[in-house]
Specification:
Blueprint lengths: L23 H13 L4 E4 L6 H11 L6 E2 L2 E3 L6 H20 L4 H5 L1 H4 L2 H11 L1 H14 L5 H19 L2 E7 L10 H11 L4 E7 L2 H8 L11 E4 L5 H14 L3 E2 L1 H11 L3 H18 L3 E2 L1 H26 L2 H11 L5 H8 L3 H13 L3 E4 L2 E4 L2 H9 L1
Parallel strand pairs: 1-5, 1-6, 2-4, 3-4, 4-5, 7-8
Antiparallel strand pairs: 9-10
Helix pairs in contact: 1-2, 3-8, 6-7, 7-8, 8-9, 11-12, 11-13, 12-13, 12-14, 13-14, 15-18, 16-17
Bound molecules: adenosine-5'-diphosphate and magnesium ion.
Length: 388
């Protein structure tokens, strides 16, 4: 049977090479912080800029190091502190199993969530040491002998004991951490204690809503202020994106001048998700038309098709995420960047009427501030809005 041709682009979800490109400097800087445990990190970037993929590839980079555990914990669906506890435990135990060749750790531990008390206690007995103790905290919580605060304290404080016992370093990657920011502020005082504490455990937090994260990390009176190094993820550069598009197209059997890839890069504004989606739309179009050679016009046509595909998603975002004033601002800025004074003038308002709304949109990473003024961070959404 003929070997199946690999997909030219991959849209959505975490990507690895060959679909993951560039980010070498980010990988180097964050990889260094990871290996040396030099500090805790707050990774910020709008959605679709590739934060999860970057974290995942950081973790891959650390794969050959047997005493460096990098649990990846997605906080997206966490609704209560117990979910955070479970996420941290599962992440750490599955890493420990894999890197220290200790199969069955999680299998046994998870009985604290599912089995009767006696069976769970037996399993924890077998695990012994700090893992056994860690699990017993959950059982006490289950039996309402201790409260959520104790559970959260345990979630964050045990990893360093486990690390010591097993002679490993641990860096937790906590993706979409803003979900946890909705919990009671106690999570953060517990976390602060850990970030302060000596030991071989660090945390990399990632999120796409500065509004929520800021409450936690960046306010001066917030307990975690200045305890993390802030790292912002931007779009891919032209030098990263263009060769990637050329290479993917040619692998898929399409001939294209560099100008074609440049156009893809420009229309996607370097935003990784759109780069891949536009590439894919372009290939699908070529397939449909039976073409092997692609032109800049094809890219423009594919871009229109991509906008049409994103239409309902953008429509929902437009209608559900923004207030009337925010919409007026966005509509104006979709026509081109503007400073606060020009923007206020265009809307017939005073600059001070806008300042808190602008601050908020920036915190949500919907707007960014550039030399030419404010602009929509999501350039494709901006195009959709401008054409609407
Ligand atoms: N470094 C990269 N190179 C190429 N494509 C990428 C890269 N990072 C992300 N992508 C693309 O963007 C999509 C979204 O990436 P993801 O990591 O989920 O972003 P985020 O977590 O910031 O929302 C991926 O499915 C992939 O198509
Ligand atoms: Mg993500």
């Amino acid at each position: 049977m003929a070997k199946e041709r690999e997909a030219p682009f991959r849209v959505g979800g975490i990507v690895e090479p060959p679909y993951f490109v560039g980010r070498e400097k980010d990988l180097q800087i964050l990889g260094q912080a990871l290996r040396t445990l030099s500090h805790n990190v707050l990774l910020l970037g709008p959605r679709r800029f590739g934060k999860s993929s970057l974290l995942w590839n950081l973790r891959r980079q650390a794969a050959p190091e047997p005493d460096l555990l990098v649990p990846y914990v997605h906080c997206r669906d966490m609704a209560a502190p117990a979910d955070l506890y479970r996420g941290l435990v599962q992440g750490l135990l599955t890493e420990l199993e894999a890197k220290r060749r200790l199969p069955g750790l999680w299998e046994r531990f998870r009985l604290v969530f599912t089995a009767g008390v006696l069976r769970a206690l037996r399993a924890l007995e077998e695990l012994g040491g700090s893992l056994g103790e860690w699990g017993r905290v959950y059982l006490r919580f289950r039996e309402a002998e201790v409260d959520e605060k104790a559970l959260i304290r345990a979630a964050f404080s045990y990893p360093k004991r486990v690390a010591e016992e097993h002679g490993v370093r641990v860096v937790f990657l906590l993706d979409e951490f803003q979900e946890v920011a909705r919990f009671d502020g106690f999570v953060f005082s517990a976390l602060k204690k850990e970030l302060d504490a000596p030991g071989n455990v660090r945390f990399f937090f990632s999120g796409s809503s500065l509004g929520l994260l800021r409450e936690v990390f960046l306010r001066e009176d917030s307990p975690l202020f200045l305890m993390v190094a802030r790292y912002e993820l931007g779009p891919l550069s032209r030098a990263e994106a263009v060769p990637f598009v050329v290479e993917r197209l040619s692998r898929a059997g399409y001939a294209a001048e560099e100008a074609v890839a440049v156009r893809v890069y420009e229309l996607a504004a370097g935003i990784p998700f759109y780069l891949q989606k536009l590439g894919l739309t372009l290939v699908q179009r070529a397939l449909l038309l039976g073409r092997r050679r692609l032109s800049v016009d094809d890219v423009d046509a594919a871009f229109g098709e991509m906008l049409a595909e994103l239409d309902s998603e953008f429509e929902v975002r437009w209608l559900s995420e923004f207030s009337p004033l925010q919409r007026r601002i966005l509509r104006e800025l979709a026509r081109g960047p503007a400073g606060p004074t020009a923007l206020a003038q265009a809307l017939g308002l005073k600059p001070q009427d806008l300042s808190s709304t602008l601050a908020r949109l920036r915190a949500e990473m919907v707007l960014s501030r550039t030399e030419e003024g404010y602009r929509l961070t999501d350039a494709v959404f901006a195009r959709w809005l401008a054409e609407r």
